[in-house]
Amino acid sequence: MITKINTLIIVLFGLIFQSGKAQYISVDEGYSAQYLVENVLIDSPCANVFNFSVSGGNFATGEKSYGYFDATGTGFPFENGIILSTGKINNAPGPNSFVSDDGNGMSWNGDADLNQALNISNSINATVLEFDFIPLGSTISFDYIFSSEEYHGTATCQYSDGFAFLLKEASATTYQNLAVLPGTTIPVKVTSVHPAISGGCPAQNEQYFDAFNSTNHPTNFNGQTKVLTAQADVIPGTTYHIKLVIADEGNYRYDSAIFLGGGSFNFGIDLGIDRLIATGNPLCQSETLLLNATQTGATGYQWFQNNIALVGETNPTYLVSSEGEYSVDINYGTSCQTTGEITIEYATNLIVNQDTFTLCDADSNQDGKTVFDLNTIILNLFTNLPANYTVSFFENSSSTTVLPSFFTNTNPFNQTIYARIMNIQGCYTDYPVHLVVNTFSTSIVDEEVGLCENNPITLTADSGFTYSWNTSPVETSQSITVNAAGTYTVTLTNANNCSKTKTFTVTASGIATINEIIINDFSDNNTITVDYSGLGVYEFSLNGTNFQNSPIFSNLNEGEYTVFVNDTKGCGVVAESFYILNYPKYFTPNGDGINDTWYVKNLQKRNLENSTISIFDRYGKLLKQINSIYEGWDGTFNGNKLPSSDYWFVIELTNGKIVKGHFTLKR
């Protein structure tokens, strides 16, 4: 039993060990340069390659900086291929558990051609694989990944080993570097391909960066690029020399490696640039494109669309009339075949959904101009606008100045602008777009209304519109009846479907109560103040026509008045009469029946008829005391006429007020 258990444990351990090793790439140093090029990198009977050489680190242990790698079952993007490193390739397999930085103190030189290609002067520890080839087709390409220990922390922003794929005609002296970012001349390096580094630097060409690696990774490198493709145009039948080189820059620390995809070196033909919407050069509707794959020495052709053989299409040319991925297999005898590929897309046949857009003039100046959101217009202009199409607007079809996203029409009421597809060239004419601005020119004035003693009132909006009140439920008549204070709004819409809002502010109100009329008379400036109460806002008048906001009236002459208090919300008017009293400033006792006596009028109108009036000469001598409103002073004392002069009086009113003054006797 024990023996069986031990045997089971041993088997399980072996399976676990094998499973663990399958997570990581393996390397093999035992292959020649010719084998690595012919049987790994190219692996094609079409290959015409020769003059192979490889060089790298001269390690005392005999280990190499180049060789074959196998990534079967690891999740690494390449199943196998060639590895060129600035250190021992035996340190390249995962896990990513230590820093590989071989090559110190061993006189391992750099490479002059690499220095020139990268515009540096201090490369060391160079590994170089070179060979010559004669292409059958007009293009070559191969896939690669750049991995490095220098992908760590802020060092990513500053340090990078260098590598280059250098190509030239064999007789030429100048190389072309193929290890550049697509569509540019920027060399692929740690510092040129990375995400944003916290505390370090912004992202650089992040779309080509794959990942920073955790411990459990197929390789022992801190990070790597995505799979990139090196490619070049070549002349069929011409001998070329290619030099694949990688080296440390400045010092031996932190090794890097190039992984070349097995079997990815292709000799193909150039069928032309892809015709894509994304690059702005698709074919237009109904347009055709003649693809020409003619090659000297070719014995046969077969065209494909979307990987399906096109029946009967075995000529060197093919006329494209629909979109798809097109390829052609070109045979040279029975054992050699090259390919060419091109992707064709067609511009969408745009269908106009709506080309007239109407808005109402939104401001108080109803001049037929308003702001149009052109981004919203784009969403409604076509029924089938692809998401990656760029549309801009122009004031006329010959203009090159793009209109702003929020555009105010420059022609009042009606203007035509033009929509232009910006990122697809040659397939579309400008689309006219009509902007219409309607107005609501009628002046609408808000109203304040009083709710008199909570009696229902009717609110009536201006006539000639359709209506929507903010009531619940919504009322749509011109008038509504309300019985509560509050704010009521109605939206008025005219025949142009433009609207304005009218606000009725309804406040509780009512007719005023006059509590008292406070009179200040017997003076040079007689005044009254109306003491009132009530719910409303009131205005005041002494003639019932001309009203004022203040309850105070000044400079009143003696006599009878009526004060009117009006509720401004229309709840009514209350009125009350009063008298202003004053004394005569002179009298003329000459017997003509006019102004012959001095007395104070209208005391009885104010219930002051029992007041006492005492008259004195200038020396203070009491000349007369009057106790009846019907009695006056005739200007005599003890039957004798007093002379013309000023005389003084004291009036003791029954309300407690004492009035003093003087008047003139004229004869």
UniProtKB/TrEMBL annotation:
Taxonomy, superkingdom: Bacteria
Gene3D superfamilies: Immunoglobulins
Protein name: T9SS type B sorting domain-containing protein
Species assigned in the record: Flavobacterium celericrescens
InterPro entries registered for this protein in UniProt: Choice_anch_L, Ig-like_fold, T9SS_type_B
Alphabetized Pfam families for the sequence: CHU_C
